[in-house]
Each structure stands twice: as structure tokens, then as C-alpha cells.
Amino acid sequence: MIADESTVLLDAIAQRGLIETENAFSSIFPTGADLQSNRVSEIGRLPTQENNDILDTANLGLAASEANSDSLTGQSGEDPLVGILERLDARLSSEAEISELPELQNPVAIERDASGIPHIKALNLKDAAFAQGYVHAQDRLFQIDLARRFASGRLSEVFGADTLNSDRFYRTLGLSQLAATAYQNLAPEAKAAIDAYSAGVNAYLATNPDLPPEFQALGYQPEPWQPTDTLVIAQEQNRIGVTDGEELDRARLLERGLSRDRIEKLINPYPEDAPTILQPEDIQPSTASIGQRELQGAIAKLPQENSLKMEMMEEVETLFSNPIEASNNWVISGSRTTTGKPFLANDPHLPLQEPSLWYQSHLETPEDEVIGVSFPGIPGILIGRNQDIAWGVTNTQVDGEDYYLLDETENGSGYVYRGEVRPYQIREETIQVRGAEPVSLPVQETVYGPVVSDLVGINQPIALQSIALQPVDGTVESALGIIQAQNWQEFREALDFDDAASAQSQNFVYADVDGNIGYIAAAKFPIRQPDHSGLYPVPGTGEFDWRGFIPFEEAPQVYNPESGFIVTANNKLTPANYPYEINGNFAVPYRAERIRELILSKDKLSLEDMQAIQLDQVSLLYRDFRPILERLEPISEAGQTWRDRLLAWDGDTQPDSVEASVFEAWYTELTRLPAAEVGQEYFDRPIFLSQAIQAGDPVLDRPGSEPGLFDEAARALEDAIERLGEPIRAWGDIHRASFVPSNPAQTSPNLQVSYGGDRYTVNIGPYNASDFSMEAGPSYRQIVDLSNPENSLYVNPPGQSSNPDSENFDDQLPLWQRGDYLPMTTEDYPLVELAVLLPEQSG
User: Fold this and answer.
1) Strands 108-113 and 831-839, how do they pair?
2) What angle do CA 837, 233, 115 make, to 5 degrees?
3) H or E segment at 758?
4) CA 161 to each of CA 216, 222, 432: distance values in angstroms, whole numbers, following the listed order
5) CB-based contacts of 554: which residues, under 8 Å, 6+ apart?
6) What is the pLDDT of residues 133-142, one digit of tens each?
7) In sequence order, which residues have a C-beta less than 8 Å from that of residue 316 and are 6 or more positions away?
8) Model pLDDT for residues 565-620, shown as the tens digit of each residue
9) pTM over 0.90
10) CA geometry: angle at 347 spanning 379 and 486, to 5°?
11) Strand, helix or coil at 486?
């Protein structure tokens, strides 16, 4: 821990009588001889010319406190706080700020390092949450305001009619009402943290700060923060985690006249030989009475007639879908590392935006110390480490939603459920629209959830049931439990969703300083009826109701597995011997396969190996399509040249690779082959495409020809070469990571950098097939070294600040682009800014 100016300030504050006991600070803010000793050791690493000033500053505070404690109350002599502020050392970029704030219980120090990361030092987690709300508002005010408006369905109040579809969607889901109920159901500790966080945001607003320019451009002032604002943001993040857009994709294909068998061939089930997160030996004996069910058997028993008419608007379909099915985390036990202790890595793949989705923070109290990233609008650390454990998350991709087709009464006032007519419960919503009349939206509620027919353009009433649309939310409670956990048992207790009703639907990997590793799928997994796969809408008559949830004790989890490592990359969770059926939109297993391949390539792995794995851009998609290239007969001389170059290539999609440009363009052309059948220009299903090209497909094969699509693949290569033009540029020249402004009204150019990878590489680089632009990817990276947690690494692009004029707006972007990191340290960081928050004194 650093002994710096804040140490002296808080020592003086403690003696000033603003806290009950000076000893409460002693373990975190040393005083007296300990302070002077720590300052001397700290000064030893600073430039020589600064040492005298710093010593004088420290000694000023000490001398004043030792000579006459009355002077600290202002009764005699000069208040030493004034002298300290006047003599802050030259490392500080600006004067330290002391603010007296209402609702704060105890003093808090906020130190900022050169990257703008706040290191918050408080007496307890409640005060830390207050300070976290304060710095979130200070650095990300428009972002958190936009987030609450988005999830509450209130964008149109400031953006006008252009955002009405989004507002209709969220008003229909009713996240605001769910958040209000969830707040009342919170555990006391979680409620106290959210209340303190809200007070911190409002304390910053009460300082009448210069508002971010977005507020001026849009002509409105931010409202006071409410505790329910935090919960509505958490509800939206949980909803994204459980949304399975493939159920609507299947419904859309049904509407086009495709059979269920054909749809399942196009949208391939997870390959039987592909890696699952849990291994067969990880599965413990279970008392569960439900066995595995055959997918096709469940599909066959569903109603076969197609009564759906899908006319879904593109922007609303996006809201119903998970934006990207990608994230990586893995953990390796000490038996496989050079240090003898675990490594844990995580990189969540989400939309790239400015400012970053994440916010780096370090929170320290006498009992707890944690560092990692928070989500602006929510207190705590969602991914990171404390002094004992580390954790990371990926989306489970589990299907936690179902659509129920309702048998509506003739007058439209209700629906038939279990043989009885149930009236709709009507919730009246009014959407205020800037520059237009308010829009009334009556929302029909059912036993399953809201009716969403109008949102998706279906000509039959359809209701949505989701594990995320519940009047409880365990996000903050779990986060608080995790950051205080010291071992596996306490970590598990924080994620026990039997009581907390967590809807996070995340794969948590775990490691601790004692050498243990583990994994828990933290989600509410619905147990469906034997004839219900969850893959298609079903009648909402009660016949296909959920039967409950998989108990937490039997949810997918493992502690110290035999293999010595755990990998999750949105791949399937469980092997065939797991006693419950868990369906989902699992990612094509290329990333999971590659991570496992790299882990198994060495007997012992180092921290540098962890970085190499996280930054790897070798495409297993290329490996799967290479046999097609081998059998392909090029049409032109250029086609022959590029076929030969691709066959000589190693599949590493680095930004400087020209071969990567040709391969990705060729694959993109191949995704056009099913366009006429599926009704979309690009159909990115590599397993189906590889099989159809090599073995033939009854729909795509030309009549009278041999099975297979090699001629079409050769034509696609010619089209790719023509599309790229001459000279063909390197992959990073046409494939650029673009950070989209969170403000939809912003007109300035996006931040863009050259990038490698594709949708299936570990260091992912998904792109828009029409122009190769990349707007999603590794939104954050961390690698934790449990042999020495201070040796850990993280990076958060583009940077901490939302202010384009700040040096911390995009200072982490070059690090992220070239695969570098910041030290994930709670000590020895360069201090460049200091603020002290004090309780407001009465009188």
C-alpha cells in the first residue's frame, strides 16, 4: 500500500474528530512513526529533486499532530490541512481536493494513478460504494445516465421519436417495475451499498460540476440518481446474458416454410466430439430424476403447424438478441504453471464503445481490498481479484427464455390457460417524446410475462418468459459477497442463486492463493417439460410450463478438477453424463479448442504463456476449411495463385497478413451460399457450410451434379479476390476495430485501430460481413498471477475517461491494440491526483 499525501491528510482528519477512533484507520492509513517510516521507503523510489518537498509535507502533518492536537480542530494555530495542501509534492498534476459531502459517514481518500484509475481508501464497503458512485459520476456521468434511460425506456425524452422502438421494447419488458420490487427485496447489506452508491452519484451532482458536453448538446440536465437506477441497469445486463435470439431465428425460418429438420441442419447442434466446460470425470453422482432427453424427440413432439408471421424490425430483433456470443476465461492450477500457483485469465467480448463499457477501480478498507473492473452505474467489482482469490466471467449462452403462443379469447381481453380464461393484466405506459406528443402503450401481462407480439411482428399473441424478468436481483449482493470472499466456500455462497435468484447466467472461473481452482455456472437453469426443448415457441396453455430450476448444488460446477485446468469460451457446459438437459446458443467450439490446445502444448505455463494464449489469432476456421481449398479447382490464374498462398499459410490472422484478407473475404463469400433459402445475405454457420461444401446438401446441390459445392467455392474465391481489388491490402488495413460512441447523437468519427483475428479466434475479431468493420471484441483483458497477485495484468480500452480532452480517454487503446497491459496493482502505483471526501459537518 502507498504511504502518500492522502496518508498525512487522513491522519490529520482522524485526529480532527471526524471519525470515532484513529485506530480504525491504522491498518490502512498509518500514522505516527509508521507513517514516517513508510514515507521514507516510498520516497526512495521518487526523483531526488522531489524528496525534500515530500519529506517536508509529511513532517508538517506529523509535527502538527504531535505538538498540539488542538490545532487540528482549528482552536489554535494554522490548520495543518491547509499547510499540507499548499505543499503537495510535484507529482500531483493538480491540487488535491477536499470536499465535505452530505450522507458520507467517514472520510474517504481517492488516489488516481497515471491511467486515471481511482484507488479508493475507505473505512468500510459502504463508504467505498459512496466514493465509487462519486467517481463513476465524475468520469462517466453521461454514460450512466444513458444506461438508466436505455433500460427504463426513456430515451425518447431526449432523443425524440428515433428511439421509440427501443423505448417500447423496454417499457413492455417492465424493467423499471421489476427494479422497484427488487429493491424492496434486497438483503440489507446490498441495499446499503446501493443507497450509498446513489448518494455518491448525487453528492457529485450537488457540487454543480461542468456537465459533459452531451448534456449541453441535447439540452437537458441529469436527474438525481435513484437506487432503482442501479437495479434497472443490472436487470438489463442480466437480460442480455440470458437472451437467446436463436429461438426467434428458428421461428423466422419456420415462417419461410422450412421444416424443423431442415432448420436443425442449418443451425447445427453442438458437435458431439467438441469440448465441453465440464469433463465427464467432473460430474458427481446425482439424485436427479430427470435424465438426458433426445433433442430431436422433443422437437418432433412440438406442434408442427406454422401459424407464425414474423415481420420483426431489425432494430427490435437486435434488442431481443445477444449482441455477440463470445468471451474467454480459463484457469490453470499450480501443477501446470512455472510458479506452482494458479493463473486466471479473462477477456469478455462485448461491443467496443467510447467510453469503455468497464471502469477500472481499486477499493480498499481495513477488512477488504479488491481491484478489477466495475460496470458504471453499479457498485462493486464484477471481474477482478482481492488479496485471496481471483475470478472471471463469460456468458453461459444458456437459453433462459421461452416464447409462449397464447390461445386468446375472441374479444382479446384474455387467454386460455390450463382450461380457464385468464384476463390480461394491463399496465399503462406513457412514453414522453421530445418534440412530439406522448405515446400511450398498454402492456398486457400474463402468467408467463409480457405479451411481445407487437414488438416482433407476430400475428398471434405471444408472451415472453425469462429468468431475467424477475422481481429480484442478486447482482449487487453476489458482487459484494465475491469481493469479500477468502476461499472457495465463501465464493460459492456468494453465487448461491437458490436464495438470491441470480439471473446473471455467467460462467465463473475461480483461483486462490492457496492453489485451488474452480468453476461455477451461476444461473437459474429452467427444467423444461420432456417434450419442450426451448428451441421453438410453444403453446402457452400450461402444457409446456417450466417445472422448476436445477438446484444450485447440482448446477454445473467443479473444484480442483483432475485435468488441472478449466476453459470456458461460450461453449457447451456439460458432457453427456450430466443428469439435466441444458440447451443454449453455444458458440462454435473453435476458441475453446484452441485455448485447450495451447494449454496442453506445454508441461508448465508461465505468465508470458498466458498472454500469448489471450492474444492468439490462429484461426481454427481456416483449419476446417483448408481441406476445401485442397480440393478446389481455381477458375483463374489469380485464383490459383491465392489458393496456393492460402495452402502455404499457417492460419494466423495477424493484422499484417495479406493471406488473412483473402481467406476472410473468401469465407464471407461462402456464407452467401444459403442466402436464397434462409432469407439473409450472410449466413455464418461454418459447421453447416463445411459439411455442405464437402459432402453435399440436398437444397444447395445443383440438380444432376455430384454432391458437393466445390465449384461454388471456387467461384467464391474469384469473387473474394475481385472484391478486395488490387493490390490486396493486409488484413489490419481493411479490418479495423471501431469504438462506437455511446451517445447515438454524436457525429465525430469513431476511434479506429488496425486489428487482426476473426469471429472464431481466441483474440477475437468479429466483423460486419459487408465491410469487414469490427465493432465488438475483447472489451477488457486481465491475467491474474496467484503466486504474486501484484504481478497481475489488465487493460481496459479505450481508457478510463469519457472526456475526449482527457489524456485518459484513449491512453489504453494502443496497449490493447498491440497486446500490452497495465500492472493490476494495489501498491506502488504513480500518484497523480488526490481527492479527500469528508462527511459534511453540521453547523
Assistant:
1) antiparallel
2) 45
3) none
4) 19, 20, 9
5) 286, 288, 579, 580
6) 999 999 999 9
7) 165, 169, 455, 456
8) 999 999 999 999 999 999 888 999 999 999 999 999 999 999 999 999 999 999 99
9) no
10) 55
11) coil
